Amino acid sequence: MSLANKVAGAAATTTRFTTSIGRSAARAVLAAGSTPSAKSEPSIHSGKSTVAGAASMKIAYTATPTVFKQQRFMSGFAAGPGTEKVPSFADYTKERSSDSSRAFTYFMLGASGAVLTGAAQSSVQGFLSNMAASADVLAMAKSEVDLASIPLGKTVTIKWRGKPVFIKHRTQEEIDDANAVNLASLPDPQDDASRVQKPEWLVIVGICTHLGCVPTTDSGDYGGWYCPCHGSHYDVSGRIRKGPAPLNMEVPDYEIDGDKLTVG
After folding, report:
1. Are 36 and 20 in contact (CB under 8 A)?
2. Which of 40, 108, 121, 261 has its CA 20 to 30 A from that of 227?
């Protein structure tokens, strides 16, 4: 017999209960004009009366059985052949319009981009600050010379960035000799005017272009510089004229402001 048939049969059947109560309790119940019930009068379910000499009596009760029903909620899982059970949180999400969701998304993207940009800028700035030259290196980056202290026809050697620099105060005869050279005969053709800012002042790095030696001043076959290491000869414009050196001596960056020379 199924459970539903059993419940239906129990609902259609009247169940009678008997109990024994004291005479005095029965009189009190009859005087009140109410019928004892198992639900409203739990105190009369005591088996025998405690009153001495009281006679027992039987009272009929009618009980209506209660049918309990199980409430089944709708499942939030996807079902079907070949599908996996994925929980649905649709009942827990906050309802909002598409415009507000889009605005919130744009706001979060913009804020995240701003934070990342600031962090990247700070990191790059710190890295470049560490890579920058120190104060003592910057102090050596430029060298200043008073040209008025250099006599005509003399050469002064200064130190710039760890390298020697020749500063020659040339005479008019030396200037004419430098301009009279046939450029086609030079290993590294270069005219004198392109190597000086003022004809009377020649500023060159005093390093031989062969193997990095320091040539001697006012020597050699051309009256300029001579490298005794391997026999390279330079003229009064610092151009290679003879020997194994392949290039002219380098002309550094410099500026002349009146009698003040700034190298670097």
Report:
1. no
2. 261
Torsion sign (Cα): 175, 181, 186, 189: positive
Categorise residue 53: left if φ over 0, alpha if ψ from -120 to 50, beta otherwise.
left
Catalytic machinery residues: 230
Structure tokens that stand for 108 in this block: 């979060």
3-state secondary structure of 16: strand
What are the strands, taking DSSP E only, across 35-96? 57-58, 61-63
pLDDT, tens digit only, all 264 positions of the chain: 555 565 455 545 544 444 445 556 556 655 665 444 444 444 444 444 444 444 445 555 555 665 555 555 555 555 556 656 666 776 666 665 566 677 888 888 899 999 999 999 888 888 887 777 676 666 667 888 999 999 999 999 999 888 999 999 999 999 999 999 999 999 999 999 999 999 999 999 999 999 999 999 998 899 899 999 999 999 999 999 999 999 999 999 999 998 999 998
